[in-house]
Amino acid sequence: MRTTLLLILSVFFLINDVTSQSVNSTLRQGNSKYNEGEFQEAELNYRRALERDPSDARALYNLSNVLYKQGRYDEASNILEGLANMNLPDSKRADVLHNLGNTKLGEQKVKDGIEAYKDALRIRPQDMDTRHNLAYAMKLLQEQEQQQQENQDDQDQDQQDQKPEDQQQGEQQEQQPQPRPDQISPQDAERILDALNQQEQKVQENIDREEKQRLPARVQREW
Fold first, then answer.
1. Is the pLDDT of residue 41 over 50?
2. CA-CA distance, 48 to 30, in Å (whole number)?
3. Each residue's pLDDT tens digit, 61-92
């Protein structure tokens, strides 16, 4: 009986050792592809490693990184949120939360990104990269809120000005001769020009804002 038990244990440890070696080898291949910028190939290797050991934190973490590199922020966030609930050393958990903040900014969920950076700093208060990203995210949130307030103010002002403007236009139409269908009055031309200038300015502001939101100031942490 004792001999049989020893044999079973030996087979168990042998299988675990082979699985561990296989996972490590696949992870190394994935890391090599990642460093070469071949992100799809790296993703395949990380997924193969997870098929052998679905709970391997390294494979999950590296997979989240390669998904981030491909702009698949929501998938990366889901993995990192799961990792944040795993039993990890504090240094690794801080890395996970730092990267989670980056992916949330990629999803344009700035408030969630700020909370992730704060959680990372509670673990590792002196991390300058995370501090930098937190400052970046807070500035971005402030700009978004300011833009939203300005848009709301513009809408409110338009509603207040709408009725007097209609009345004024009616009075002008009664006092002035109507232009021919193929003509534009100087007043209409000026209004059209102002509208075009405002539209162009808003488009440029949106482009600038989207460029700032595209990526956080620091890249993902790697293991």
1. yes
2. 9
3. 999 999 999 999 999 999 999 999 999 999 99
Q: Spell out the SS3 assignment of 182-201.
A: CCCCHHHHHHHHHHHHHHHH
What is the DSSP code (8-state) at residue 70? T
Question: In one letter, which amino acid is 222?
Answer: E
Ramachandran region of residue 220, left (φ > 0), alpha (ψ -120 to 50) or beta?
Answer: beta
Dihedral angle over CA of 71, 74, 76, 82, nearest 10: 180
> What is the tens place of the pLDDT at every residue in 100-122?
999 999 999 999 999 999 999 99
Instruction: Quickly list H helices, the chain.
Output: 2-35, 39-52, 57-69, 73-84, 90-106, 110-123, 128-175, 186-214
Taking the CA atoms of residue 29, residue 30, residue 33 and residue 39 in that order, the dihedral angle to the nearest 10 degrees is 160
Q: Could you give the CA distance from residue 82 to residue 93 in angstroms, rounded to a whole number?
A: 11
Domain range list for the chain = 87-144+198-223
